[in-house]
Amino acid sequence: MDILKTLALFVVTAVAEIVGCYLPYLWQKQGKSAWFLVPAALSLGLFAWLLSLHPTASGRVYAAYGGVYIMVAVMWLWAVDGVRPSAADLLGVAVSLAGMAIIMVGSRSNA
Description:
Keywords: Cell membrane, Membrane, Transmembrane, Transmembrane helix. It contains 4 helices and no strands.
């Protein structure tokens, strides 16, 4: 799987995970309907399925996915929560993406 497709799949996976966790948060902390738990469960199921689509070893996928998850979570912080990321947030994203790149690119020879 080429790097751009993998990155796109990671982004979609992260959104599915965040939505799956955000909806129960809305139910529990903001008094939204318990019906929010239904799409949350579906979203978390989608998240798990999406992680299974990667052709490499699962531990490596999960480790690399973490970097993209951090990036998407900070984007969510800004877009949904309305909190502008700090310089430290952005530095953390850069470091985590560098770690992801090291894991994914550096391990290409030993799938």
